[in-house]
Amino acid sequence: MIDYGYSDPINNYGFSPDISNKHHEYVFKEKTNHEDGVYITARGDRYEGEFKDNEYNGHGVYLTARGDRYEGEFKDSEYNGHGVYITARGDRYEGEFKDNEYNGHGVYITACGDRYEGEFKGNEYNGHGVYITARGDRYEGEFKNNIFMVHPVNAYDFGWPFTVSLYLYSFITTIIGK
Question: Which partner for 7 in 14, 25, 38, 147 could form a disulfide, CB atoms 3.0-4.6 Å apart?
Fold first, then answer.
């Protein structure tokens, strides 16, 4: 751990520059015997949790100065594994992370009430998922880079001699009630 800078062995805390961690300039470290601790950065971010080799490793909670909050698994000071990320404005993601990004299966709920559950890659909806808007519109299928991949619907199934987009199909089926 940190073995330089100011240290108070009686009260078990220290203040020192952390030159090994590229994300922080100065930190406050409250030491314990279990490799748990608290870091507070110069900009006001705070990490509380497990450490290994002077990195966030294991379970922890990271609060940003702007109000974002992550609780979950860390590896080498990055979000890796299962976690929950809540933005200051109220968006919430729960699921798998890899290298600080949403990757794998997860649920993203916006502050306005829209909800996506499915596969993520690189912080975007990628793969199979279900997107439900706050007003109840539902889109289920394949997503690529946050875009719902619209597949044409064969209108012959309804006795129409043409092909329509899924959006038009949804509109028409709502009107005719089929």
Answer: 14
Instruction: Count other Cβ atoms within 10 Å, centred on residue 112.
Output: 11
Q: What is the pLDDT of residues 18-29, one digit of tens each?
A: 434 444 433 445
**What amino acid occupies position 54?**
N
Give pLDDT, residue 149: 84
Q: What is the pTM of this model?
A: 0.68
**CB count in 10 Å sphere of residue 108:** 21
Phi-psi sector, 21: left (phi>0), alpha (psi -120 to 50), beta: beta
Cβ(139)–Cβ(131) below 8 Å = yes
Confidence of residue 36 (pLDDT cuts 50, 70, 90): confident
pLDDT tens, 130-140?
Answer: 999 999 999 99
Query: Do 85 and 92 touch, CB atoms closer than 8 A?
Result: yes
36 φ/ψ angles, rounded to the nearest 5 degrees? -100, 155
Distances (CA, A) of 157 to 140, 153, 161: 20, 9, 9
- What are the domain boundaries of the chain? 152-178
Question: Alpha-carbon distance 158 to 147, whole Å?
Answer: 27
Provide the token pair at 167. Answer: 């959006």
Distance CA 28, CA 2 (A): 10
Q: How far is 110 from 103, CA to CA, in rounded Å?
A: 18
